[in-house]
Amino acid sequence: MALGDCWKQLSWFYYQYLLVTALYMLEPWERTVFSILSASQSPRADAGVSLTQHIWLANPMCSHVPQSF
């Protein structure tokens, strides 16, 4: 019974993902390409934010600028 409940919950999250991103209008192969590309770009965006934060913290000339991280 727990596996069935888990499957229902995961499918509900997947349907929400499709609705929020409007992927329900695409064909299955287009959906797959979009999901792969967006998942591959996610770590790059996180690294960019992290790298920017490290540069700001390491630069002594920016010490007077308030940090909002």
From TrEMBL:
Its main location: endoplasmic reticulum. Keywords: Endoplasmic reticulum, Lipid metabolism, Membrane, Sphingolipid metabolism, Transmembrane, Transmembrane helix. It comes from the Eukaryota. It is found in: Endoplasmic reticulum membrane. The keyword Transmembrane helix applies. PANTHER family: SERINE PALMITOYLTRANSFERASE SMALL SUBUNIT A (PTHR47084). This is Uncharacterized protein. It comes from Fundulus heteroclitus (Killifish). The lineage of its organism: Eukaryota, Metazoa, Chordata, Craniata, Vertebrata.
